[in-house]
Amino acid sequence: MKENRYTPHPIDTSAVEVPEELSELMEQMARNVHEVWAAGRMSEGWTLGPRNDELRQHPCLIPYEELSEEEKNYDRNTALSTLKLILSLGFRIEK
Length: 95
Hints:
- This protein is mainly alpha-helical.
- It has a domain at 22-86: Globin-like (Orthogonal Bundle).
- Helix content is 43%, strand content 4%.
- The protein has two helices and two strands; from the N terminus they run αββα.
- It has helices spanning 23-43, 69-88, and strands at 47-48, 57-58.
- It has a two-stranded parallel ribbon.
- Helix 1 packs across helix 2 (69-88).
- The protein is flat, with a radius of gyration of 16 Å.
- The protein starts with 22 loop residues before the first helix and ends in a 7-residue tail after the last helix.
């Protein structure tokens, strides 16, 4: 087996605070993260079912609203991390 020499170095955004007015945007981003993931899986032939990589089944191939809070939080974390990165790089987010 080939040795993995990759060490991730994400930009530190721990000091970035996301303004409350962006919470709706974050939730919309989280929903879209799930939609993009699900569309990708489905285009690869995955279907709804108990987690089984061999059979290409996954229990989260359901609408975002039907996900458990734990699963929604996974997508929210991705959205939050993205917003924090955008803000840490000096960009402004305006409607």
